Amino acid sequence: MKIATSLARMEDEASVEASSVPIGTVTSTNPTATVTSPSTAMISSTKFDEAFYPGRRLTATIFKGCLWVHVREYNDLNGKSYPTKKGASFTPGRLRVFRSMMDKIDTVLRQQEVNGSYGVDLGGGVMLKEHLGGGIYATVCEAFHGVTLRRHWMPPDGNGSIVPTKNGIYLPASQWESLKAKMDALLAACPELVNPGHCSDTHYNQMAMLECRECTPFGWLSL
Q: What range defines the domain where residue 26 resides?
């Protein structure tokens, strides 16, 4: 449980760092390099950084010795591009789950198009909601032709309801396709992401899974 809690805390810190470092600030590709800039002291290297749509980037950085992948929106200010809080962060294991869900997401998006062409109305509800790890979920809603990657949480007085936070990013179908097209380049730059381990590989029984903040961040309600 302590390891899982530390991972959740590190995710928060990595997200904050990714939302405060402008493009070009970190230039080293050496995982052991030291960065002296106060705003980037925790990031030792950027391993991958490419735009998949104007103002939106897929990046991979080393933070406190751990590899994190970010899908994030950027804003331009004074000639530099700065990450915003609109985005989602992935551990290598979480990215493995995300990649395994892509075909399923594509199937739902195609069904969404078919429904629209035949005038099928499902009431604007959720067509797909998949847990990717930690509090991150991928969602497809009937009302919007695209994919939302968003962090969720359980309010202490919410009667056990898991609700979305403001931390996330919506990708219209065209941007979703562009993001997928960048995955091969990401994996080429970071081969350790091709087939990474996942905490679920070490769960020796169901109780261990239920105690894992990455697999079941909200207990059995995550299942």
A: 2-91
